[in-house]
Amino acid sequence: MKPGRVIGTVTLSQAAPQFRGARWLMVSPMGPAELTGKNPGLSQQSTPVVYDKLGAGLGDEILYVEGAEATQPFDHPIPLDAINVALLDRYTYAPPTV
């Protein structure tokens, strides 16, 4: 799982039937700089588009998974790269010490 912050949504004029009833989110991944508050802005990492049925909104912090794990909630093969698996109410992060 990876932490991220919702920075936008994607609007589709058409979608495959298996995707109806959900939203697509643009997510800024959160690394150590974002988790500690040193970088309150956008991450320098690539911005994934994440499938969401949990109702995340702009500015929400989420956990998402990518790759084959993203398809696990579905009963059949589905073309999906990332899915929202949790909405974060709060978190604490302390970088590892060397």
Task: Give a verbal description of the structure.
With 98 residues, the chain is mostly beta strands. It has one domain: Beta Barrel (OB fold (Dihydrolipoamide Acetyltransferase, E2P)), CATH 2.40.50. The chain contains one helix and five strands. It has one helix at 32-35; strands at residues 2-10, 23-29, 49-52, 61-66, 82-87. The protein has a five-stranded antiparallel β-sheet, with no helix packed on it. The radius of gyration is 14 Å and the shape is globular.
Short structural summary:
By secondary structure, this protein is mainly β. The chain has one domain (2-87): OB fold (Dihydrolipoamide Acetyltransferase, E2P) (Beta Barrel), CATH 2.40.50.220. It has 1 helix and 5 strands, in the order ββαβββ.
Features:
98 residues; mainly beta; OB fold (Dihydrolipoamide Acetyltransferase, E2P); 5-stranded antiparallel beta sheet; 1 helix; 4% helix; globular
Q: Assign the CATH topology.
A: OB fold (Dihydrolipoamide Acetyltransferase, E2P)
Could you report the average pLDDT, rounded to the nearest whole number? 92
Spatial gap, N to C terminus: 23 Å
Helix segment tally = 1
CATH class: Mainly Beta
Question: In the CATH hierarchy, what is the architecture at level 2?
Answer: Beta Barrel
What gyration radius follows from the Cα positions, in whole Å? 14 Å
Strand order of the largest sheet: 3-2-1-4-5
The CATH superfamily bears the name EutN/Ccml
- SSE pattern, N- to C-terminal: EEHEEE
- Write down the overall geometry: globular
Number of strands: 5
Number of domains: 1
Structural class: mainly beta
- What low-confidence regions span 5 or more consecutive residues with pLDDT below 50? none
Percent helix: under 10%
Strand content: 25-35%
Q: Which sheet architecture does the biggest sheet show?
A: 5 strands, antiparallel
